[in-house]
Write a structure and sequence with these properties.
This protein folds into 2 domains: 129 residues, Response regulator (Rossmann fold, 3-Layer(aba) Sandwich), CATH 3.40.50.2300; 107 residues, Alpha-Beta Plaits (2-Layer Sandwich). The chain is 48% helix and 20% strand. It is built from 9 helices and 10 strands. The strands form 3 sheets. It has a 5-stranded parallel beta sheet with strand order 2-1-3-4-5, sandwiched between helices. Strands 6-8-7 form a 3-stranded antiparallel beta sheet, sandwiched between helices. Strands 9-10 form a two-stranded antiparallel sheet. The protein starts with a strand and ends with a strand.
Length: 251
């Protein structure tokens, strides 16, 4: 069974111990924990695509973090852990972007597991919708809309953490001639091959988008200098310039 990854954000060690013990008692065993002990830079964890559900202790930064998570379109539902609550508090948290809340000492294993199961399934459904709406069906790269949203988030991270971000634009010369001579099916083969070659030269922090028929963009995050950008670009250009086979012919 695939396990749901639960992120706990709390400076109270007791929260970690109680929640971890409850999740360990789940049958079948379907939860695994990720933890962020400090509230100083939890936004990186909130935006981690591998996190399925976030349980975050209420604190001075709660409103700020909920707004920031919503602004950056964090996919994982956030459940806020409170000392006490009422309907007004719950509504306020939901308006800020929280999916639900729990009150310390007022939940049992079955209730916690049910809430986490529901929210993990909600996250997976959101991921599928996001995949369909933001990805190019031919290559799997970001489409134009997905690229625009991703670039905005990348620039936000660049400004927030003070690192450099670069953008590469790649256009395939005379691609229309390929379609005319070999047909659209082979044209699609070429586009998929070029996309794979670009991906193979990317770092783990980079991302690729297909903007149009023969147009690609690559976002390079956390680059040290213009020389680094040029070096990465040259590797990509060399890769896509290598010959490929279309209809048993080398082009």
């Amino acid at each position: 069974m695939e396990k749901h990854t639960i992120l706990i954000i709390s400076e109270e060690q007791t929260d970690h111990l109680i929640l971890a013990a409850s999740l360990e008692r789940a049958r079948p065993q379907r939860f695994q924990l990720a933890t962020a002990e400090s509230m100083e830079r939890p936004i990186e964890a909130l935006l981690d695509p591998n996190i399925d559900v976030v349980v975050m202790a209420h604190g001075p930064q709660t409103e700020y973090l909920l707004r920031l998570a919503a602004k950056n379109e964090a996919a994982a539902p956030i459940i806020v852990l409170l000392d006490e609550a009422n309907d007004k508090t719950g509504n306020q948290l939901r308006e800020l972007g929280a999916q639900d809340y729990l009150v310390r000492g007022q939940f049992q294993d079955a209730m916690l597991h049910r809430i986490l199961d529901y929210n993990a399934q909600l996250k997976h459904a959101r991921d599928k919708i996001q995949q369909l709406s933001s990805r190019d069906p031919l290559t799997g790269a970001l489409n134009r809309g997905g690229f625009r949203a991703h670039l905005e988030r990348a620039m936000g991270r660049s400004a927030r953490y003070g690192f450099n971000t670069a953008l590469l634009y790649i256009n395939i010369d005379e691609f229309a001639n390929i379609n005319d001579h070999y047909g659209e099916a082979d044209g699609d083969v070429m586009i998929k091959s070029i996309s794979r070659r670009l991906i193979n030269k990317m770092r783990s922090t980079d991302s690729i988008a297909r903007l149009g028929g023969d147009e690609f963009a690559v976002v390079l995050e956390d680059v040290n200098s213009a020389e680094d950008v040029e070096q990465i670009a040259q590797k990509m250009l060399k890769s896509i310039a290598a010959p490929m086979i279309l209809s048993d012919q080398q082009v």
